[in-house]
Amino acid sequence: MIIPSGIFKIDRALEGGIATGCFTQVYGKAASGKTTLALQFVYATINLGFHTIYINTESSSPIERLEQIMGRKYDTFEQSIQIMIPKKFTEQGILIEDLQLYLRPETKLIVIDTFTKLYRNSLGDKRTTYAAHRELNRQSGLLKGLARRKDVAILLLNQVRAAIDSSDEFEPVADNIMEYWSDFVVKMDLRVKRGERLLELVHPEGGPSPQVLYLTPKGLSTHPEDKDQHESAR
Question: For residue 98, what pLDDT band results from cuts at 50, 70 and 90?
Fold first, then answer.
């Protein structure tokens, strides 16, 4: 099943939307619009009559932004989304292990925002870092298996770091692990003009051309807002 965002340029860039049974990674710099993109798909999933699990590791709640995108109060759609908040990387791992227990027959989307944040917080000396790598790989494998078995779309938001071979480019955190498990990889980037964002499907290669979008108070749009571009969304 393909879940469309309902926004032409997003769905064009992603060959129709995001697929159930698949592991989709979205990476980009802070304020590039990753969370807003994820919430566009939450909105679309709810409108299709399905249920979403949203695992939030960020300090801010997604509820206010989702209300802006939905155009209505949270209590009118809270039965269609379950928000979970792990505080530590070990808690995230336990939650992912037990995730199948929280699935409903109508669950079609699982979002983790941000998948690698608690992982990065757990890095330390060589031994600790090696253990964190193994745990991230394990969690990724569990999610990929869950996507396949239960036909749900896994949408993971990822942070970035400077690319080793270039001072001007950036790459996903834990790139080797994330690339191995990802069926689709989406890059979001800031552009010079205020409010503009670039959305590109970078894996599989040879996909549609990148699309320019605009970050607005009501979400991502194909057209810019004349006033008060929303710059606080991640």
Answer: very high
